[in-house]
Design goal:
Shape of chain A: flat
Structural class of chain A: mainly alpha
Helix content of chain A: over 70%
Number of strands of chain A: 0
Distance between the termini of chain B: 63 Å
Radius of gyration of chain B: 24 Å
Number of domains of chain B: 2
Distance between the termini of chain A: 25 Å
CATH superfamily of chain A: MetI-like
Number of domains of chain A: 1
CATH topology of chain A: MetI-like fold
CATH class of chain A: Mainly Alpha
CATH topology of the largest domain in chain B: D-Maltodextrin-Binding Protein, domain 2
Radius of gyration of chain A: 20 Å
Largest sheet of chain A: none
CATH superfamily of the largest domain in chain B: Periplasmic binding protein-like II
CATH class of the largest domain in chain B: Alpha Beta
Oligomer: heterodimer
């Protein structure tokens, strides 16, 4: 989810802002703002948005006459995982965008200008010049996104604590349950070790995949 | 050369960062695994609390700003500060569910505060078995006239006392009488048949009968355990919780099906599954639900709300199977407890302080209506709110108690049990699946 939705959105925003559009700096600050807010605060904010009684989401849908779309977003195991993904994506889009934006800004204007003189459209400039140049940054973003997903804990803990009926359980919440709720320290430690190994393995695999592509 | 230097700096940084993860314990907080008197066989001796020596004690509890017990803790701590100006008590309060994780993490890291709140029975037993809790036998001698030994039963292991009980609570069936009156009921129905008729009438009038916080499974157990107890009798449920009998019991399966029929009949607020207990309690006080089954510690919050208090009444859950259960069989008992860490540098002083503090918390808690006193009441108690007095009448007629399931069982079993309670509430398993699963997974 992080790789296939979060990163393309981040890249799109970085490319758009990197072109030097009007209001570039304010947009940059606005997109980056969720990264600066504490995850617990974000969790509480989204808990209120999703609240089935007075939440912004259900109230908005009702106001728009879409009552049939109203849900118990965090209480229904069919929608809980998606509902947890949305604030996670929202929170970290700005982070990845900033990384990529720095890369986009590093592309020499001369190269862009030369491509444009040769008749390249804006899309072609991005596709054939900017993206290849910022590939190392994209690789770092992919590694951060994948390992971050494996380690994700705080937002899920605040929003659902792995529920309902384990629908939003991730390795970290399972580890906490084993270690501190069930007092099964061996199992908890095993999960922790596996998480570290998986993070390393994915980081190596991603690095290798990018190298092969080069 | 530069490369070598850089490598050395990097290696040094790595070693330092690893060292930062190490234990930082100093003095007596180091290896205290065997300092629990219960484990070493060494009986601690009672020490008078010195009044001339500057002492600092740390305490953790769950009396957060929104907790019913907050005022009783504040009042008790103020009294203690006045009596012992030389003792500084640094206390912190944490939210109920996160506290369970925090205290267990602190115990495993050997970083416990001097005095800590705990639930009795199996929850505390895990810490006692690990040798992390200070034996209170010596300190208890001074307070035995005010604290009946029967109240220490849930925190006594191998004949030694490890906890100071505070208040005693049961699960109560709270009712919003305004809503009940609107469908023709002046009293909380006394029989199960009438109770179901009342729920149907409420539902027909567009009123949600039950509010239950599905996000906090212990709130679901308040309903489920009451239904099981009033179906199979307290002795059977006690035997199962305490491991004297297996879960493989057809009567329990039938009781779980009865509970599930309440869910399937739409008596519970469907939104409740995504809500925490504070939100559900607020909804009940706002008149969204007719009934709210929860601990009688809530009497204090209800009594403090002048607008809501005249509307609320409390009763015990009606008997479902009169052949096996009777009125007077209750879920609850003395569970809220203070304990002293064996690793405390001033464990003997903390033990005495803990008893005195516990007595005051109990006193103020009873006056506030946070529960019934585990200690012998003293002073003028005529101001205790009517709801708590009703609870006292219910407890006065009690014939048997079953301690809350997640407190009675050890941590691993309790969590397995709570997982199955979630499945039952979510209608993922029926009564048969519940007992089969638990009898397989809890050995």
């Amino acid at each position: 989810m992080s790789v296939f939705i979060q990163l393309p959105v981040s890249l799109g925003l970085a490319l758009a802002l990197g072109r030097g559009i009007k209001g570039e700096k304010p947009f940059l600050s606005i997109y980056f703002m969720p990264v600066l807010i504490s995850t617990v605060v974000i969790g509480q904010l989204w808990l209120k948005i999703y609240n089935p009684d007075y939440g912004l989401l259900n109230s908005g849908l009702t106001k728009l006459g879409l009552e049939n779309l109203c849900h118990i977003w965090l209480g229904d195991k069919k929608t809980a995982l998606l509902s947890v993904f949305v604030p996670t994506l929202w929170q970290y889009v700005g982070y990845h965008m900033l990384l990529m934006y720095a890369g986009v800004k590093g592309v020499s204007p001369d190269i862009r200008e030369a491509a444009r003189i040769d008749g390249a459209t804006e899309g072609q400039v991005n596709r054939y010049i900017v993206i290849p140049v910022i590939k190392p940054i994209i690789k770092v973003s992919v590694i951060f996104a994948v390992t971050g997903s494996l380690k994700s804990f705080d937002l899920i803990y605040v929003l659902t604590n792995g529920g309902p009926l384990h629908a939003t359980e991730v390795p970290s919440t399972r580890m906490i349950e084993m270690l501190f709720q069930r007092n099964r320290y061996g199992m908890g430690s095993a999960i922790a070790v596996m998480m570290i190994i998986l993070c390393f393995a994915f980081a190596l695999l991603i690095s290798k995949a990018f190298k092969e592509e080069d | 050369m530069k490369r070598k230097l850089l490598s050395l700096v990097m290696a040094g940084a790595m070693v330092l960062s690893l060292a930062a993860c190490g234990n930082t314990t100093t003095g007596n907080t180091g290896d205290t695994g065997n300092t629990g008197a219960g484990n070493t066989g060494v009986e601690p001796t009672a020490t008078e609390i010195p009044t001339d020596e500057e002492i600092t004690l740390n305490m953790w509890c769950i009396a957060t700003e929104s907790d019913s017990n907050r005022h009783s803790y504040e009042a008790a701590i103020a009294d203690m500060a006045e009596k012992y100006p030389n003792i500084t008590l640094n206390w912190e309060a944490f939210e109920n569910e996160s506290y369970k994780t925090k205290i267990k993490a602190a115990v495993s890291a050997n970083e416990m505060p001097d005095i800590f709140f705990t639930w009795s029975c199996a929850f505390l037993q895990d810490f006692v078995d690990a040798g992390k809790v200070y034996c209170l036998d010596a300190a208890y001698e001074e307070f035995k006239d005010e604290l009946p030994e029967s109240m220490l039963g849930n925190s006594t292991y191998d004949g030694k006392h490890y906890g100071v009980p505070l208040t005693m609570n049961i699960v109560g069936l709270f009712a919003n009488m305004d809503l009940l009156k609107s469908v023709g009921y002046d009293e909380i129905p006394g029989t199960y048949e009438e109770f179901i008729e009342c729920c149907d009438a409420l539902k027909a009038a567009g009123i949600i009968p039950f509010g239950c916080a599905g996000k906090e499974t212990w709130c679901v157990t308040e309903y489920l355990e009451s239904v099981i107890e009033k179906s199979v009798g307290y002795e059977t449920l006690n035997d199962i919780f305490l491991g004297r009998a297996t879960w493989d019991n057809a009567d329990v399966a039938a009781a779980v099906d009865t509970f599930q029929s309440l869910v399937n009949n739409g008596y519970f607020d469907p939104n409740g599954i995504a809500l925490g207990n504070d939100e559900v309690k607020a909804n009940f006080m706002d008149g969204k639900y007719a009934f709210y089954m929860n601990g009688t510690w809530n009497c204090a919050d209800f009594a403090n709300n002048a607008e809501f208090f005249p509307k609320v009444k409390v009763a015990e859950f009606p008997v479902i199977n009169a052949d096996k259960a009777t009125l007077g069989q209750l879920i609850g008992g003395p569970s809220d407890t203070l304990a002293v860490a064996a690793s405390s540098a001033n464990a003997d002083i903390a033990a005495k302080y803990c008893f005195e503090l516990g007595k005051l918390i109990c006193h103020y808690g009873y006056l506030d209506g946070c529960g019934l006193p585990a200690w012998t009441p003293y002073g003028d108690t005529s101001a205790v709110n009517a709801l708590t007095q009703d609870v006292a009448v219910i407890c006065g007629n009690a014939t048997g108690y079953v301690l809350f399931g997640d407190t009675a069982m050890n941590a691993d079993d309790a969590n397995t049990y709570l997982s199955y309670v979630d499945l039952v509430y979510g209608c993922e398993v029926d009564g048969q699946g519940f007992i089969e699963g638990l009898s397989t997974d809890i050995r």
